[in-house]
Amino acid sequence: MEVAHMLKITKFGGSSVANAEQFKKIKNIIQQDPTRRYIVVSAPGKRFSADNKITDLLYLLDAHRKYHVDASSVFKLIKNRFIEIKNELGLKQPIEKELDAFYTNLNQMSQAVIVSRGEYFCAKLMAEYLGYAFVDAKDIIRFKLDKSIDWDATSAKLQAKYAQYDHFVFPGFYGTSANGHIQVFPRGGGDITGAILAKCLHADVYENWTDVSGFLMADPTIVQNPKGITHITYSELRELSYMGASVLHEEAIFPVKEANIPIHILNTNRPQDAGTIIQEHSKIKSGYPITGIAGKKDFMSIYIYKKHMSNEVGFIRKALSILEKYHISIEHIPSGIDSFNIVVEKKEIEESLYEILAHFKEELKPDKLTVQDDLALISTVGKNMSDKPGTSGKLFGALGKNNINIVMIAQGSDEINITVGVKKKDFTKTVQVIYDTFVGGNEE
Fold first, then answer.
1. DSSP structure class, residue 314
2. Residue set of the binding site
3. For substrate, which residues are the binding ones (predicted)?
C-alpha cells in the first residue's frame, strides 16, 4: 500500500501530554510519519509520581462546587498546568480567558462538562502547536439514549470533517448525549475515542501512544528483562489482561476488533521501540510457542468428593447455585469422575466461607470436603501452543523437575491457554520456570 493512501489514527495518553517536554516528543513523532494526520489526546497526566492527573483535579473541582467549598486553589493548579505548557511552547492562544470563563461559570456546569475540559484544553494547545485544526468531540461523537454510541450519526459527522481537513486534533473522553449535553466515557475513555475514529474513518492502523513499550511476555518484577510481545491476538490479550496484564481500556478494543484494524501500542518516551501490535487475524507468527505469562495470587480452592458422583444428575449445578446465592463468581472448575474443585478469588468468599461450606455439607452430603486457601493461578497463553504437540507435557515436566507441585490444571477448549494452580509460595518460581522453559534466551 502506498504511504500516501495509508491512514493512521494516533492517540496520545495522559503521560504523553503531561508537560511541554512531552508535547515536543509528540511533534517529533508526528513529523516522522506523514500518515499520522488525525490525533486524539487525553488530558495531561502525571509529570512525576507524586503529581496529579488533570482529570483527577477536575473531579476534585467538581466536588468543591457540589459541596459549596472554595475551589480557587484547585482551579489554580489546573490553570497553571495549561499556562505552563502554553508559555514553554510559545503558543499564542488566549487560553487564560477561556479558563477563567470556565471557572466563572462552574456552578452552571454538569460534572461531565467539568471533567471533560482536561482533554478540551489539551487538544486546543496541541492543535496550535502542531498547526492542525481543532475539532471538538462534542460536535462529532453522538450517544444514543441508552448511552451507547450512535455509530451512524458519529460516522457521518467524522467523514465530513475528514473531507474538510487533512489534519486535525481531537479531544478524547467525551461526546454529546441524545439530548444535547456533554457526556463522558468511563475512565480511560480517550482510548475509546481513538478506536471510534479508527473505525469510522476506516484507518489502516490505530496507534496508541503511552508510557510503556507495549506488552511484555512476563511481569518484569518477576522475570528480569522479559522479551516484548511484538504481535498478539485479541483473544490472547483478553486471557492475559484477565490475569492482570493491562495497558488498554477494554471498551477501546471492540470497535477496531470488529473492523480488524490493528492496534499498535507504542511508547512516547521510546519511539524507537517496536511496541505491540494487537490484531486477531495476522499472518505474522511469533518465534515462540507461547505469547505471554500472567498470574494472580490469593485464590481459594474448595475440593468436593463424593462416591459415584458421576451417576448423580445435577450435582455440580447444586454446588454452583449455592455460590450464586452469595454472588460469588467462579474462576475455574476442574473436575474428575467423582470429584471437582471450585476455584474462587479469596477476597470474594472469605466472609461467607463457613456458611457456604455448611450449605455444601447439608445439600451435597459429600464424602470429603476440603479447602485450600493459599493458591496462585498462572496462565500460559499462546495461539501457537495448539500447533505444537507436547506443549502441556513440556510445561508440567519443567514444573515437576523444579519441585513445584501443581494443585490444579485448567485448559481452555480453544487451546490458547493453560492455567496451573500452585501454592502461593511457588508463584514467582513458577512464572520464572515457565518463562525459561519456553522463551529462555533463545528463539525456537
1. T
2. 11-14, 55, 119, 210-211
3. 55, 119
Domains and CATH numbers, the chain: 3-211 (3.40.1160.10), 292-438 (3.30.2130.10)
Tell me which residue of 232, 213, 218 sits closest to 440, measured CA to CA: 218
pLDDT tens, position by position, 265-310: 999 999 999 999 999 877 777 778 899 999 999 999 999 999 999 8
C-alpha cell at 137: 468531540
DSSP codes joined into one string, 206-272 = EEEEESS-S-BSS-TTTSSSPPB--EE-HHHHHHHHHTT---S-GGGHHHHHHTTPPEEEEETT-TT
- Binding-site annotation: residue ranges for substrate: 55, 119
Whole-model pTM: value is: 0.85
Q: Which residues are annotated as a binding site for ATP?
A: 11-14, 210-211
Residues 57-89: tens digit of each pLDDT:
999 999 999 999 999 999 999 999 999 999 999
106's grid cell: 462552574
Map residue 40 onto helix, strand or coil. strand
